[in-house]
Every structure is written in C-alpha cells, then in structure tokens.
Amino acid sequence: MLDVNNFDSMRIGLASPEQIRAWSHGEVKKPETINYRTLKPEREGLFCEKIFGPTRDWECHCGKY
C-alpha cells in the first residue's frame, strides 16, 4: 500500500502560459479594489470574490451560506 506521508522526493515546476489561461476565469468590470468602510472586495472589481474565491472559507460574500 502507498503511504502518502513517506516519500523520497517532490518535483516543483513552473506553469506554462497555456496552463495559467486554463486555470483562470472571471472578468474585472470596475476599477475599484476594496470598500474602505467594510474592508471587503468590491463586487466585479480587481479583488472580486467571483474571480479569486471567498475571503472566508465556506462563506459567501452575502453571508447567507
């Protein structure tokens, strides 16, 4: 049986431009970054949670889920 905690080596490499394009998704529609009152990312801005994922694990931006 393969033991995942016991290994001899690890290989790390750079991602190709094609791989990075395949991983990326989302679109920046507004130039805003962060709301200065709430310190949360602006929707459809540079740090939008739709593009980069939620700021808190297992919690959506609206706080409903």
* Share in helix: 10-25%
User: Can you summarize the main beta sheet?
Assistant: none
Poorly predicted runs are none
User: Structural class per helix/strand content?
Assistant: mainly alpha
Strand content: under 5%
Radius of gyration: 18 Å
Secondary-structure element order, as H and E?
HH
Mean pLDDT: 84
Q: In angstroms, what separates the terminal alpha carbons?
A: 39 Å
- Number of distinct beta strands: 0
In one word, what is the shape? Answer: extended
Note the total helix count: 2
State the gist of this model.
This protein is mainly α and 65 residues long. It has 2 helices and no strands.
Textual characterization of the structure:
The protein has a domain at 26-65. Helices cover 17% and strands 0% of the residues. It has two helices and no strands. It starts with 16 loop residues before the first helix and ends in a 13-residue tail after the last helix.
Q: What topology does this entry show?
A:
Layout: H1 17-23, H2 49-52
What key attributes describe this structure?
65 residues; mainly alpha; 2 helices; 0% strand
